[in-house]
Amino acid sequence: MKRYLNLNDFGGKIVLAIAILGIGIPALLWAISLALNALGIQWPALRFILLGALAGGGILFLGLLSLVIVEQIQDHLIYKMYINSRGKRIPSAQGWSECPFCGNRKIKDFENSCPICGRVLK
Ligand SMILES: [Zn+2]
Question: Distance from the CA of 82 to the center of ligand 1, in angstroms?
């Protein structure tokens, strides 16, 4: 099974965008509004821009959270597939099989364990 979703590729960029939208821009706008209030200037649109940036950061955060959940489910499925396939004999030429643990290629179909390493085969 191929690993389709890997947050290592772009997760850092999403976290950076969340930090900018959710913390950086609101803090900057809040400081600007404090300065404008100190000067006695009212600018009501500033509040909407601040709320919009916060909402964008929140939406990105929820998107990243759902991607993390999907990636965890994918990794669990890959792990289960690996556990199920571990110890399976590898078919080789002329009816022989290969031991996945030691590489012994002289395993017959009726043998349940490897005669060299003694590990149980599926
Ligand atoms: Zn073996």
Answer: 18
Which SS3 state, helix, strand or coil, does residue 27 take?
Answer: helix
Q: Please state, for a pLDDT cut of 90, what percent of the chain lies above it.
A: 66
Can you say whether the dihedral through the CA atoms of 28, 30, 31, 35 is positive or negative? positive
Is residue 15, in this structure, part of any structural domain at all? yes
Q: Give the predicted TM-score (pTM) of the model.
A: 0.71
Domains contained in the chain, number: 2
Same structural domain, 49 and 108: no
CA distances from 36 to 33, 49, 51, 60, 92 (A): 5, 15, 18, 29, 78
Residue 104 belongs to domain spanning: 87-122
> Is 2 part of a structural domain of the chain?
no
Can you tell me which residue has the tokens 């179909």? 109
Report how far ligand 1's centroid is from the alpha carbon of 96 (Å).
Answer: 13
| pLDDT single digits (tens) 50-87 | 999 999 999 999 999 999 999 999 999 999 999 988 88
Residues 20 and 80 in one domain: yes
